[in-house]
Design brief:
CATH class of the domain at 227-418: Alpha Beta
Number of strands: 32
Number of helices: 26
Helix content: 25-40%
Oligomer: single chain
Radius of gyration: 34 Å
Strand content: 15-25%
Distance between the termini: 64 Å
CATH topology of the domain at 227-418: Isoleucyl-tRNA Synthetase, domain 2
CATH architecture of the domain at 227-418: Alpha-Beta Complex
Shape: globular
Amino acid sequence: MKYDFRRVEAKWQKRWAEEGLYEVPDFSDRPHYYCLEMFPYPSGKLHMGHVRNYSIGDVVARFKAMNGFHVLHPMGWDSFGLPAENAAIKHGGVHPADWTNSNINAMREQLKQLGFSYDWRREFSTCEPDYYRWTEWLFLQLFHKGLAYKKKAAVNWCPSCATVLANEQVIKEGVCERCKTVVEKRELAQWFFKITDYAERLLKDLELLPGWPEKVKIMQENWIGRSEGAEINFPVAGSDDIITVYTTRPDTVFGVTYMVLAPEHPLVEKLIAGTDKEKEIREFVRKVQRLSEIARTSVETEKEGLFTGAYCINPLSGEKVPILIANYVLLEYGTGCVMGVPAHDQRDFEFARKYGYPIKVVIHPPGAGLDPATMEAAYEEEGIMVNSGRFDGLYGREGIRAVTSYLEEKGWGRSRVNYRLRDWLISRQRYWGAPIPIVYCDKCGTVPVPEDDLPVLLPRAVKFKPTGRSPLAECPDYVNTACPSCGGKARRETDTMDTFMCSSWYYYRFTSPGESSGPWDQAKTDYWLPVDQYIGGVEHAILHLLYSRFFTKVLYDLGLISNQEPFTNLLTQGMVLKDGAKMSKSKGNVVSPEDIVAAYGADTARLFILFAAPPERDLKWSDQGVEGCYRFLNRVWRLVAPLADVVRQAPTAVSGSLAGVNREMRRATHFAIKKVTEDIGSRFNFNTAISAVMELVNTLYQYREVPEADREPAVLREAVETLIILLAPFVPHAAEELWEITGHTGSVHRQPWPSYDPQAIVEDEITVVVQINGRVRDRILAPAGVSPGEMREMALKEERVQKLIGGREIVKVIPVPGKLVNIVVK
RNA sequence: GCGGGCGUGGCGGAAAGGCAGACGCGCUGGACUUAGGAUCCAGUGGGGAAUACCCGUGCGAGUUCAACUCUCGCCGCCCGCACCA
């Protein structure tokens, strides 16, 4: 009798759906638990990364449910996005909506075949008007709060995707996060969200997230990039202009020997206009701007600067300081200029040496001096202020504070906290996204679409060409509209929203997916949120997770939700590798989940993926490993199926005291409960949980060989039932079938999780290891409750130990209760 | 350069200062069999005839009765950030 996974998996998937086994009521008296995995973009088919992500989530959801929690475990589709539109361009004819929906249908089918415990009634897709209506609505809330604004700025432009990108979507070496094309800068008017207003809270509230991996928190911290310092005003000599510089080292201000502006700095034009430097400087600015973002910001790029001919005045020292421009100064950071302090900044030091600017020492290391002539590197540590007039003698932070308050007193500057974080650019020059609900009227200006007029529907008939202009702009019926304010002729905004906006609030929608009077029912979000366990790839450490945190804080401030953070616990799963590399079409090392499910079944696929590595680590795919898991399931089947009748007829309670093999069997059963419960419940170590179940199976195989007369039926029954229940979160179909054939009615997934009997796992006898000088030399059997003193006695008495010690002097004996005795001899 | 992670048999991985290698894969042998690429049982870090003994968790020091585990210094691989003023 072979385990027929095709029949069994289909049978239970059908029955679960019919019985609504995974449908979750909105409320319950039981403690609630929201288990969520990052919903997928419907790219076509599931890949192994999805299977891993969702298998992990399913174990957690099922385990929590069996432990008495009321578990929300939903699934949906992050369905706006470029690939749909690119497919339309490439294959002609196919509309993004149709392409997307057919992908969703295929992937939903795959998810169902994998047997995940989703409440499918809550499914939604972000490209449906019912959903994006509320994405638009949320945009309006941000707009009304002054958190959405349009401005002209030098923005990241991906020539391949033919759209702008947010800073977070430009990754290492300055390439597009999606297509890895080198990103360019373009001067465009774009919509932004003021995420910078929330920089401090986004940083500080990371402390509220002990359940997040340290790594992710550090990445967010670095991205936000908080620094403390001061702004200092340097008046331009012979003019009313002022150069405001940001520095983290106001204590070095007396050491400034030049000032550098970013080439794009607005003051540059003014400084050079009509001077003999004009031509030379313009040439230089053009040269710098021609450089790509990568070359521009690479450490390797040679630092180049040019004197503008103008000077400014150091307000503290009164010194006249030359103003230059240089390629390494970024307009976007701080105030777009840098004060050059060669003695105390390595970069400035090298720059000054190259161009011959003086090096002026204003900080001395404690107990030592510095000589500019012989210095080989800048002194960047803290130290004692010198050559700094009234501030001489102040040390480190003290000096910084003194200089800053003096500046404030004189009105020459102020203390300032600076962030690396930039505002979130959300407009995209593409079609397949949520429309930005804004109308431009010649008379009334920028007018938000009234909430009652939402959703602004995406028109279906549109030409898709990656021209760099928004496709909606070519669609007169869409563009031309009446001004909501004056009724006159007006034009709609034709850019759409970044899809990260859709995924920044979807986890609220799952609580009330059909809600039509608002984005969600607040009673339900108050009940379920925050998400107790969120699971997904680390590639979203900054992007999605930072945006979602930002949204949550805005929504909280708007009084729309009651939680300050969206995700209490975060699990970032590792990648699925094959042949030492991430699975990818270009590498040709892709294993298709469909093929695995067809050949071995969903349970085997899930079991392998959970068994092969702990969830946070990368997983190395192994066809033989899959084979092994398949064999294990068959081994379980061959064990349990023939015992089904025995189990069925056995008494449910173990009566009387047990001895010998029966006691051993029961111990193995309860030990497995303990191990699996701890491994899933507190560590997410599914691999070791599964190995514990395998050990229980191995013990059962031995127990099966015991003559029937010597076996205790109740012990066998308990062992088999426990085995099935422990398997249920990992291999839900097989467990359900085994549960049924062993005579149970009702789903195994509705069974309470077993607890172990501490008495049952107590050993009668333990093996005590005897070490001599830390090396294992003997093992002795001792009664379970043996005291350290008795252990010591027993070990020393042992003949073999005596012999090995010989005549040597015993220095020390260390008994470790229940484990070992270490005898130290000389 | 800065920050984080990892380094254990032929392979995936166990071991939360206390018997290194659980569990699985692979391999070897046996049983069953017309057959076995199924199944069951046993063995399996290296050296060694050995249940003796020695060696062994990237390398080198240290702490400890005891170190894969803690500390310090290197080496290698991976990830993130990087002219941030």
